[in-house]
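[Target chain]
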Amino acid sequence: MKLWGGRFRKETDDLVNDFNSSIQFDCRLYREDIQGSLAHAAMLADCGIISREDEAAIRAGLEGILADIEAGKVEFTADNEDIHMNVEALLTERIGAAGKRLHTARSRNDQVAVDLRLYLRREIGEIVDQILDLQEAILAKAKEHQNTVMPGYTHLQRAQPISFAQHLLAYGAMLRRDVGRLLDCRARMNECPLGSGALAGTTYPIDRWETAKALGFTAPMDNSLDGVSDRDYAIELLSALSVLMMHLSRFSEEIILWCSWEFKFIELDDAYSTGSSIMPQKKNPDVAELVRGKTGRVYGHLMGLLTTMKGLPLAYNKDMQEDKEPVFDAVDTVKLCLPVFTGMIATMKVLPENMRRAASAGFINATDCADYLTKKGLPFRDAYTAVGNLVYYCTERGKGLEDLSLEELRQISPLFDGDVYEALGLEACMGQRKSWGGPAPEETARQIQSLEAFIRDSREASEA
């Protein structure tokens, strides 16, 4: 008979049993379920609700079940629906009546809520560590390429000269925000729903602060209805993971472009590429393409859970069983993508000559030419127009700005002098951009130091 079967006189239909069961996916919560039960049993004993003998028997029984699960000696069953009832049934089978007392003053509603928070709290720490590993790979490449000139783009058109280090560090900055979002999410989810009961708490004299502290939460949740029905933390996590995947997808798109023959800014390592079944010359960026594709998968889970939750009245509803599969899959997907992406970045070969060749075309020093005239006293808008005329002149004749003679330049503005050629050099264009956040080598060095400090501090926060 089901643990909840006292009110019923017929067995559950097999189809309903399978439909209702969640053990096939919530079995991964076994560790958190046992952790929560150990804290709950200790609190019950401390409050005089169960005996010390019963608590000792429960503790020994649960520790034995945990060891057996991790040794592969336990087979879960759909007859017991979920991880909570599977563990409780095993416990009662092993220790008898004491096991039946474990569920005093709690419900599966607050039990699953605490399990999921414990699980996601741990998973966030692991994802943050993976992001920091990726940032370290980005840092290593950035340090090597502070003086590597490449074209910066807007509208996918060559725009201004930057360094490859600065381009990489832009993704480092995005990932910093991802770490911050995840740690903020973890801080907000770190309140304990255990003791909320089914929805209205309990008549037993429990100590919710004790269980919260034992499980590493900052406090018990303030409202018992909210305690069992809140899934904001899961939605917030899916949102943070979606933004993270969006950043990885943008980076993937650039990797795909850069390793194409049209750009050839980088070459991916053989270990992080694949070939074609028919075209022997192909070297495909499948890692980047799969990361880009899996981004939509994580987005879908966010929209799915938002839709599930949007019409639910308080408090718990069975619809909320649908929270776990999307959250689990999103977490698994992100944890699958990050290490392979990190390896791809760490092993890719950068081709600085090709980057500089691309930077030499497209008039990406035009803004610097206008700035040169402005510093000579010409209003910027007039300088802008003058350089625009120069660009048109060059386009008609197949020249670059730096190829023009001083006589040609002075036909547009008498302010041009011999020092203009130094100002138009790509290294000078990049090196003079020393404003905070810019591509000048000394400024990218500061950004590198800042990111190094962030990684160090974040690892400490993640472990806290």
About this structure: The chain has a mean pLDDT of 94. Strands lie at 149-154, 157-163, 191-192, 219-220, 266-267, 349-350.
